[in-house]
Amino acid sequence: MDIRKSSGLIMHPTSLPSKYGIGDLGESSKLFIDYLHETKTKIWQVLPLGPTDEVEYSPYSSSSSVLGNINLINLDNLKNMQENIFEIPKFSNQIVDYKNVYEFKEKIFEDISKNININEKSYQNFLNNKVIRKHITFLTLEKTKKETWTNWSEQEQTYSDQLFEYLVNKHELEFKFILYTQYEFFQQWNELKSYANSLGISILGDIPIYVNHNSADVWSNSSLFELDEKGNMSFVSGAVPDDFTVEGQIWNTTLYNWENNRSNDYQYWINKLQNNLDKFDYLRIDHFVGFFQYWAIPINEPALNGEWRKGPWKTFFEIVSKHISMSKLLAEDLGVVLSETDQILKEYNIPGMKVLQQRIPSLDKNDEIHPQEWGEGLIAYTGTHDSPTVQQWLDEANEVQTRYFNNYKSTLDLSFKNDVWDFISLVWESPCILSITTVQDLLELDKKARFNIPGTQKGNWTWRLDNLKELEKTIENLKSLNEKNSRII
Q: Of the candidates 344, 296, 349, which has an alpha carbon nearest to the alpha carbon of residue 326?
């Protein structure tokens, strides 16, 4: 891994302030980057930036692992906006009202996109990327058909250049909408990333190991997934019981046919990783242990009825590493502990994770160690997007956890006499190469600001920062932590 000792913040763009009801890639994102620069924080960690469904609106449930969430497009930066007059609804400043925000932006994009010239050189160059071209084809079909791809005609269930040309002519408006919005997303994202990089800020992206069944990934690579003769799933992905959910989790994403992936030299994965590394400086792979061992659940059954299966790790990393820079990858390796995982992380110098909320013992009999004894080649977190806020954790901690936390914080070199900031300081003072917390924790917010509760389908991903000025009170503390712990290089 080529990250030097530094620190980072988790802040998904949707959570930034904006008059359009959802954080976007405009001015507030640049101001947040300025804040990172001022506090000498070197990493901005975002969640997956792909299109979301319109049920859960989860960044981890997408119709494409490559394309972008068009609702992150900043309207003020669109060249064509001056010709359009529209009334902005009264959106909440505290939460994202996804349904109404998506409907509002869709109408604007439809109005602008119908007038574009798809033969312009910029659009044609964009479509030269074969993976992007396939995924745009799928999203166009999805917009016209409004049903899962297994119900489409035989001609539409397989990508071809003929199908692409057919869609361009037969469904011109829908195609223009997808092309225009995806192009604008990438234009704005690349500009924002360049701005961050110019100030020495790197972007840490995130990619789930699994993808949705109704996605461009599965549609265009169906032989690489575990599907029956009609293209349907018999087993789905999920997780065994853990610290987050005692009954396990059902993700309902598609399992891989790893044998076919191996026969194809993992080209799908190479393309997917490379397209994402084109967007980010570093990439965290969610549920990394799935490459080694994964939980397969019979469709429509409880998670506890699943079974363990072996992953492809022996050949996967050997082949993929010949094409992808392993030094750009991070592993979300929480949960199941396997010696094989540890072997690969060490061999390819890929850092795993430790989350302090999970590592403060809840029982007197335990094998946990003080954060000061964690290894250097790790990413240390106070919590993740799936965790309670630190304040919520403190409010709900049992007697044993409270005792261990008080013992840990008594060893701090930089103590704030504030439990939330002392919690953050414990992570910053660990020897880990990278320490990360959330904006909610910097602001000492309680459970009302929790971003996601795993295993639940509603009410997640909605938290927003009302005003970036709220961060001003955190500048000196965060800057002091970075300077005191030499996380400023």
A: 349
Cβ atoms of 467 and 23 within 8 Å: the answer is no
Instruction: Find out whether 227 and 150 touch, Cβ atoms under 8 Å.
Output: no
Residue 1 lies in a domain: no
pLDDT of residue 243: 63
Half-sphere exposure of 279 (CA within 13 A, CB side): 27
Within 8 A by CB and 6+ apart from 283, the residues are 204, 205, 206, 207, 273, 276, 277, 328, 329, 330
Low-confidence ranges of the chain (pLDDT < 50): none
Q: What is the CA radius of gyration of the chain?
A: 23
Q: What region does 182 belong to: left with phi over 0, alpha with psi -120 to 50, or beta?
A: alpha
The answer to the question of residue 13 being in a domain is yes
Q: Give the span between the Cα atoms of 13 and 136, in whole angstroms.
A: 23
The 10 Å Cβ neighbour count of residue 19 is: 12
- The DSSP string of 217-269 is HHHHTGGGB---TTS--SEEEEE-S-SS-TT-EEEEEEPB-HHHHHHTTTHHH
| 3-class secondary-structure state, position 50 | coil
Round to whole Å and give the CA distance between 361 and 409.
14
What total number of domains does the chain contain? Answer: 1
Q: What is the pLDDT of residue 244?
A: 61
Q: What is the CATH number of the domain that holds 54?
A: 3.20.20.80
Distances from the Cα of 120 to the Cα of 84, 127, 179, angstroms: 22, 11, 12
Which residue range(s) make up the domain with 221? 6-484
Partners of 378 in beta bridges: 352
Confidence (pLDDT) at 317: 98
Amino acid 246: pLDDT = 75
